[in-house]
Amino acid sequence: MAIIEQPRTEVALPAGAGAPALVTPKEAKGMFARPVQPQGWRDWVFTVDHKKIGIMYGVASFVFFIVGGIEAGLIRLQLAAPNGKVLSADQYNQMFTMHATTMVFLFVMPMASAFANYFVPLQIGARDVAFPRINAFGLWTWLLGAIFVNLSWFLGGSADGGWFMYAPNSTRLFSPSHGIDFWALGLQITGIASLTSAINLIVTCINMRAPGMSLFKMPIFTWMVMVVQFLLVFAMPVITVALFLLSFSRSFGGAFFDVKQGADPLLWQHLFWIFGHPEVYILILPSFGIVSEVLPVFSRKPLFGYKFVAISGAAIGFVGWGVWAHHMFASGLGPISVLVFSMATMMIAVPTGVKIINWTMTMWGGKLSFTTAMLFAIGLIVEFTIGGLSGVTHAVAPSDTQQTDTYYIVAHFHYVLFGGAIFGLFSGFYYWWPKMFNRKLDERWGKANFWLMVIGMNLTFGPMHIIGLQGQPRRMYQYDEANVHTRFWNAISSIGVIFLVLGISAFIVNVIITHRSKHPRYQTTLDPWNARSLEWMTTNPPAVHNFDAIPTVHELDEFFHRKYAEDHETGEIRQVATAEEILADQQAHADKNIHLPSPSYWPLVVSFALPIIGFGVIYNPIIIAVGAAVAILGIFGWCMEPSVAPTEDYEPPASTPDSTTKELTA
Amino acid sequence: MTTVEHASHAAESHDDHEHAGHSNKHYYLVALALAVLTGLEVLLSYVDIGAAFLPLLMILMMIKFIMVVLEFMHLRRDAKLFHYLFWSGFILAILVYIGALATFKFFLAA
Amino acid sequence: MSTAVAEHNTGHDDHGHGGHGHTSTGLSNNKLAMWLFLGSECLLFGGLISTYMLYRGRHPKGPGPDQVFSIPFTSVSSFVLLMSSLTMVLAVSSAQAREMRQTKLWLTVTALLGATFVGGQVFEFTEFYRKGLGFTTSLFGSSFYTLTGFHGVHVTVGIIMLMALVGMLKAERVPGDKAEVVELVGLYWHFVDIVWILIFTLVYLIPA
Questions:
Q1: What is the ipTM metric for this complex?
Q2: Has residue A3 been placed in a domain?
Q3: Nearest CA to CA, how far is A144 from chain C (Å)?
Q4: Which of A129, A202, A352, A509 is the most exposed place for a label (fewest CB within 10 A)?
Q5: What is the Cα–Cα distance from C36 to C42, expressed in whole angstroms?
Q6: Is the dihedral of CA A206, A209, A211, A214 positive or negative?
Q7: Are the C-beta atoms of B51 and C4 separated by less than 8 Å?
Q8: Is this prediction's pTM over 0.95?
C-alpha cells in the first residue's frame, strides 16, 4: 500500500471536540501556520490538488455556460420575430457582449482548464503540476475575475461594446456606464489566471513526465494542451496591453483612443486581434486533443499519424500568429496588408485539414463503438468541418468583405465553437466521467443529449449562413417585417434554441440521475472503455497521490501496451493483463513516504487582492492601495511558506505507529 | 550575521573570482563594453551621419541587448531550452508588432 | 519500492535542490518558469513600445519629445541601470560561491542603483510635467508615460524583491536553493534592464 505521510499535527482542540480542526505544525515557517489535513469545505478551498482544482474549474465554468446560454436565449428571443420587444437596444448590446465574453472566457477556456488540470498530470504520470499553489491561485483568481465581470449587471449595466470591444466605441465618451470598466478589469484578472496557469502547465509537461516518456510518447491531449499553454503565454500579454490602454483611457484620461487627439482606432483592433486569433486556437485545440483521445479508443485503433496530429497542432499554433488581420479586412488596411493576411489565413486550413484526415483514417477500418463520447467526437469532425469551410470563404478577402459583420460570420464561429469546442468538451465529459466520479453517465440520456444538441445547433446556426449572405448585419437588436426570408430563418434559428436547451437539460438530468441512482448500469470498472493512456492506470477516482508507483513508460499508449501484446509469429494481438491486474501490480510496488504539496491559504489571499484593486480603479484610488497591500503581504506569506512541509514536520516513518502516518486504502 | 554553509558545498572554492563558468572579471569587462556601447549610441545621436544613423543605432542596441542576455543572464552557457523559450517570445514580439506597425505604413518614409 | 522520500513528480523538492535532477530535462522548474515568464513579457513591452512608436509624433497640444527629453540626463540614468545589472550578476556569482555576505552586499547595491534610476525617472517626469507634458496632454504624453511607467513599476517591483531577498537571507528564511533564488531574481532584473536598453534607444535616441 502507498503510504502518504502527512505533516505532524499538534492537536489543540477544545475539550470534547469531534471532527479534527485545523492544527498547527510544530515549526511553522510561514507567517501563519498552514492548514494541515483540512476537512469539508476547507479541503476544497485550501486545496492545491490538481484534481480538486480541475473539478472546481469544471463546476464553475458549467454554471457560466448556463449564464451564457441564458444570455444567448434572450438574444434569440429578441430576434425570433421582427421588431422584437424583449430587449431594448442598450440591453441587447450588453447581452451579446456578455454572451460572447462569458462563453469564451468563463466557459470554454476554464472548462478546457478543468480537463487539463485534472488529466495532464495523470496522463504524464505525475503526482501534481509543477507549482500546485500557483495552480490554486489560478483557479481562485479566475473565479473572482469571472464574478467581477458579472457584477456589472448589478452595478449600473454591463459591458456593451461587443466582446471585441472596439475603441473608440468602448471609450467613456460612447459608453459611460461602468460596464466596460468591469469588463476590462475583470478580464485582466482572469488573464493573470490564464498566464500563471499556462506557465505552470508548460513546466509540468516539459519537466514532470514519467521516466521514459519522451515528448512523442506523451498522450495527444497533453500535447494539444501544451501547445495551447504556449499560445496563452504569448497571447495574454497582448490583450493585457490593450486592456490597460482601454482602462487608462476610461479611468485616467489617457488619449490612446481619442480620435480628436489623433488616435487611430486600428491600434485597438490590432492589439485585440493579435491576441484574438491565437485565442480561437486556444479555444479549439483542447477539444481537438480530447477527440484525438476518444476516437482511437472507440475505434479500437491507435490514432492515425499521431506525430502528424501533434505537430500539426503546433503548426496551427505557430501559423495562427500570422493571420490576425483577417478580422480587419474591411477596416481600411489597404490591399497589401489584406493580401498578405489573406494568404496566411488560407495556409492555416492545411494543418487543420491534416487533423481531419488523421481522425477519419483513425476510424477507417476500426471497430467502431458509438458511445456518447464517440458520437460527440464524430459530431465535432462533421460540424467543425462545416465551420471550417465557411472559414475558408472568409480567408478570401473579397468574399469576406461581403460577409464581414453579417450573420454569415456568426454562423462560422458558432459551428466551430459550438460544434467544435463544445462538442469536444462534451465528448470529454462522457469519456472521462467514469474515471473522475466512478460512475458511467447514462448512455440513453447521453444520446438524447447529443442528438438534441446536433439538431439544435444546426437549426440555430445553419440558417445564419443564409441570412448572413442575404445581408442581415450582426449586433442589430431588431429587424423589420420587410423581408420574408429574414423573418422565416430567424424564426427557425430561434426555434433551434429550444432544442439546444433540451439537449443541455438532458445532460444535466443525466448527471443527476447517474449520481442519484443505485442501479448497476451507472457503475463502472477501472477501465470501462478499454482505453490507451496512463490516466486509466489509476483507481476511480484517482487517489490523491495519483499513482502508487510512478510508471516507467516504454511506448506511446503505454497503458494499451501493458494490456495487450503482439504475438510475433502470428501478428495477433492478445490481452495479457487487465486494468485491475496492472493496478494491483502498481499497488504491490507502492512508494512509501509520499510527501504531497501541502494545502495553503495564500493563493486565496493573494487572489482576493486583485478584484479589490479593480474596485479601486473604478470607484476610489485608496482601495487600490488596500488591494496592493493585501497582494504584497499575501505574496510575502506565500514565499516564506515552503510548498511541501519541511521534513522536520513529519514523523519518521520507522517510529512507533501512530495516527500521523496514513495508510492508503485503495 | 553568520550564515550556515551547506556541508555539501563546503568543498567549493571561496575564491570570489572563480565559480562554475565565468570569473567576475569577465562581468566587469562586459559591463565596460556595455558602457562604451552606450556612450557610442549617445555620441551617435549628436553626430549627423545621414541615413546610416538608424541602422547603426539599432545594431548597437541589439548588441547591448544580446550581451546582457547571453552574458549577464548566463544564457550562453545554459540549457538550449531556455534559449528557445526566451527567443521565441522575443522574435514573435518583433514579428507581430513590426507587422502591425507595417500596416500603419510606419516604415515608409515619413 | 523505495523507502527514501519518493518525491518524483510532486513538483517541489523541499530539500534544497530546487527541483534539479528530479525533472525530465534535469532543469529546474523555477528557472524554466522564469524564462517562460520573461518570454511573455517580451510581448507585453513590445505592445507598449509599438503603441509609443505609433503615437510619438502625435502631440497637437503640449511639447514633443525634442522639447522635453534631456539626453545627457537620461544617458546617466541608463548607465546607472546598466551598472545595476553588473552588480546583480556579481550578487548571483557570490551566491553561487556561497558567499552570503557578499551576496547581500551586491543585492543591496543593485537595489540602491535601481532606486537611483527610479528616482531619476521621477525627477524626469516631474520636469516634463512642468514643461507641460501630462499623461492626458497628448498621445505622445499618454504613450510615453505608460511605457516608461510600466517599466518603472517593473523596476520598483524588482527593488522590492531585492530588498525582500536581502531581508530573507538575513533571517535565514529563504526556502530551497538560495543561489537559485538569487539567480531567478537576477534574471528578472536583467530583463528589466534589457527592456530599458530598448526604450532608451527607441524612445530617447531616435529623433522624433
A1: 0.91
A2: no
A3: 23
A4: A509
A5: 10
A6: negative
A7: no
A8: no
